[in-house]
Amino acid sequence: MVIRFNSLRVLVVVAGLMFVCACARSPTGNSAPIDGDLAITGVNVISMASPDEIAADSTVVIAGGRVVAIFPSGERELAASVEKIELNGAFVIPGLADMHIHLGGPDELPLYIANGVTLVRNMWGDEETLAMRSAIADGSLLGPRIVTAGTLVDGKPGAWPGSEEVDTPERAREVVLKQKSAGYDFVKVYSLMPVDVFNEIAVVSAEVGIPFAGHVPLEVEVADAIRSGIDSVEHLYGFERATAVNGIDLGMSSMSPEKISIGARMNAGELAAGDVFSDTRLKELAILSRDSNTWNVPTLIVLKNFALTRDQADDNFAREEMKYVPAPMRAFWNPDSDFRRAHFSDTDFEALQAYFDPMLDRVRVLNDAGAGLLAGTDSSNPFVFPGFSLHEELELLVDAGLTPFEALQTATSNVGKFLGEPQLGRIEVGANANLVVLSDNPLDDIRHTRDITGVIRNGEWLAADRLAEMLEGAEAKFAASPAQAPEAPEGGN
Ligand SMILES: [Zn+2]
Question: Exposure check for the chain: N or C terminus, fewer CB within 10 A?
Answer without folding.
Answer: N
